[in-house]
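With this grant's support, the team has encoded backbone shapes as discrete tokens. A representative record is reproduced below.
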Amino acid sequence: MFNFILKGGILMWPILFCSLIAITIVLERFYNLRRAKTDVTDFLLQIRQLIDEKKLNSEKLEKRIVLMGSKQVRKWETNLRGLATIANVTPLIGLLGTVTGMIKAFIKIQQLGGQVDASVLSGGIWEALLTTAAGLTVAIPALVAYHYFEGKIDNYSNQLKNSAAEYLEPLG
């Protein structure tokens, strides 16, 4: 594997770095979103406490609940933008690596005066294509993970909204 990284050229390093960041984000989100059910329960307890205190009229109470819900959703969405960025950028870095590799291959052809053995040319091309493959290898799982987490967050967010609406409905 290390041999492939070296053969892919300098742009393999940013792709490798992006893969490490993506793995870190995915593990962190799995760990923290596991607790989301507890977060929903805590949110509902806070709403119940606000209602029981009767310090806020229904309009202020509703604004406070919306603010609390937005804060909770932002907490769940932590680092997802970074994961989406990695999913979008790594294929472009890979493509850039392929383009620069192809440029090097054509420079080699020019230097040899067009008298190039096909095996020399194909060797340069497959090395250039390694960066595109690496970029896609990082981007596809990152994109799948991003959409998985977005779906989970949407589900939890809907739970918050529905539960808050149930609490607020009797208050008019």
In short: The CA atoms of residues 44 and 116 lie 72 Å apart. Helices lie at 2-8, 12-33, 36-53, 58-76, 80-111, 118-168. The chain has one domain: 2-171.
